[in-house]
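Colleagues,

Please find the record for the two-part complex below.
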Amino acid sequence: KNQVEQSPQSLIILEGKNCTLQCNYTVSPFSNLRWYKQDTGRGPVSLTIMTFSENTKSNGRYTATLDADTKQSSLHITASQLSDSASYICVVSPLFEGYSSASKIIFGSGTRLSIRP
Amino acid sequence: NAGVTQTPKFQVLKTGQSMTLQCAQDMNHEYMSWYRQDPGMGLRLIHYSVGAGITDQGEVPNGYNVSRSTTEDFPLRLLSAAPSQTSVYFCASSYSGGWTAGELFFGEGSRLTVL
């Protein structure tokens, strides 16, 4: 069964510190992997997208890495800010030979990140 | 540009009542979908549509109904509300839901409580 698992479930760090969130997936075959940020009471918003051929993708202070061989991805946040407090969701799209690929997307349960001043 | 708009943001129902969650997008996206989000679980797909007049079931469709008469609108109907349907519901759309899954654009969510 295709699954996406994230760790840790929750994380608290001090403002200005770095952190890394993990995502392991068993989805195969694999099309792409996205990280979404979900602020409290809001809908998720895409941060990065990576295909199987990409190893690293940056978006400002966010850097995502992907190891397609071990089926692992990480999201590294540098110099954290209070506004980084949110849930971060790993989302994997399987390679699907049909005209409804978006319906096959699999979501992780997220990592809840809290930044303390 | 409003993006994906959901109404209402909050709703309290009694068991057995019916209601409709509204979703509209102004990005001319082909693909629209409804998810529910429960604590400790990933987003789960309820129903989706790849275009006007075309809908299909997702992972957890029981107790919900959808229709898509226009590209812009994709309402979700709860037929007879049950406490198990207490959740936060998200509507999402994508420019590409067909051969390649594009970025999903989410609404702000509708928090539903069934007593």
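Chain A has a mean pLDDT of 93.

Comments are welcome before we finalize the supplementary table.
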